[in-house]
Design brief:
- It is a single chain.
- This protein is mainly alpha-helical and 94 residues long.
- It has one domain.
- Helices cover 56% and strands 9% of the residues.
- It has 2 helices and 4 strands, in the order ββαββα.
- The strands form 2 sheets. Strands 1-2 form a two-stranded antiparallel ribbon. A two-stranded antiparallel ribbon has the order 3-4.
- The longest helix is centred in the last third of the chain and has 35 residues.
Amino acid sequence: MKMGWIKNSAGKPDAMLSLAVASFSICAFAILAPILNGAQIPLTNYTITLGSPDTALVIAFLGATFPSYIIRRNKKDQIESDEIRETIKNGIIK
């Protein structure tokens, strides 16, 4: 089964970017969900009751995904920059 990852700026599927977007969406829903506390769906007998989110869980979820994507992305850019600098230092220009 092939995963449908979100593509990064290079056009390649990126798992960490996908998880960062998913974590942001989940946290945004968890933060906005208390607004729906006791909302009733029209023409049905269903009532939606959502409590307030656990702050520690929201922070842990975001804290685990966003920095990992940003660090990985910056490290990749740094490696590419170092390679270009080394190429110029050696007098080889592509």
